[in-house]
Amino acid sequence: MKARYSVIVPMFNEEEVIQVTYERLKKVMDDCGDSYELVFVNDGSRDRTAEIMRGISNADEHVKLINFSRNFGHQVAITAGMDYAEGQAVVVIDADLQDPPEVILQMIAKWKEGYEVVYAKRLKRHGETFFKKITAKIFYRLLSSMTSVEIPTDTGDFRLIDRKVCDVLRGLKEKNRYVRGLVSWVGFRQTMVEYVREERYAGETKYPLKKMIRFALDGITSFSHKPLKIASYIGFFLSFSSFIYLFLVLFQKVFTSWTVPGWASIVGVNLLFNGIVLMLLGVIGEYIGRIYDESKDRPLYIVSETRGYPDAEIEDTRKASDYAK
């Protein structure tokens, strides 16, 4: 019998919290009064996360485990969970307990009302620095202004999606994935529940500044071509300004006795314009790099081990065959 609800939990080095996460999720899903599965996706953890989860999976038939061969990234781990999820309603929640599992029951209630996507909107974000809060706020507003797809602000990947939405997302083959943006892009009937985001239960964040910047770039370049248009506008403006400046220099040389001596101004102008040109080439390079990633057509992830699944492979062109089960 297939589970009615699937809860996807991506993990990376979560040995300090994963036992508590499992216990809270189990209590919540037992309270929902219907069949369920907990799909834990181990994204190449280097601590005891996989070992702990093997023990939990062996003891609880509701728990299923997917181990990656290496770290493929948070968004890919969510995607893998969707590939393996069997439920009619699929919930995505992180393992760090910043998103309270108890909110899942509110999402299920909205789903039963007929909504096909129920996302969780953060009213407050406890335990996060001012820098992270302000940069997140700026990013969501910037992304909203740059794309025609309405992506809800102050939301993460914590959400419930209907089976039909999950199946549509499985058919999207892009490599640089921004799942919350893809969920908004596919449409369907959507609503929200509000909650207060708690401090991380234990361990440290898996999104340091470098990964946050990479994540932001994925979001912007996946859903907006405006940076390319802005690069074109700046390039045109600089070319026009240079042309005007050339006429000014020629006029000074021919009709006046005053010319700028030395080389400082020339060097200054060259540095300014060359810096801007390199910046614009960097923007274009981001898009070209993504085209390159898509053209290689490699599997999105590789599974080294699964627990709790039948021997038959789950067919999906995005992943390589399981090497061990």
From TrEMBL:
Domain Glycosyltransferase 2-like: 6-167
Coiled-coil regions listed: none
Keyword Cell division: no
Alphabetized UniProt keyword annotations: Glycosyltransferase, Membrane, Transferase, Transmembrane, Transmembrane helix
Membrane topology: Multi-pass membrane protein
Chief site of localization: membrane
Localization annotation: Membrane
CDD domains: DPM1_like_bac (cd04187)
Transmembrane parts of this sequence: 230-251, 263-288
Domain of life: Bacteria
InterPro entries to which the protein is assigned, alphabetical: Glyco_trans_2-like, Glycosyltransferase_2, Nucleotide-diphossugar_trans
A Pfam family recorded for this sequence: Glycos_transf_2
Keyword match Protein biosynthesis: no
Protein name per UniProt: Glycosyltransferase family 2 protein
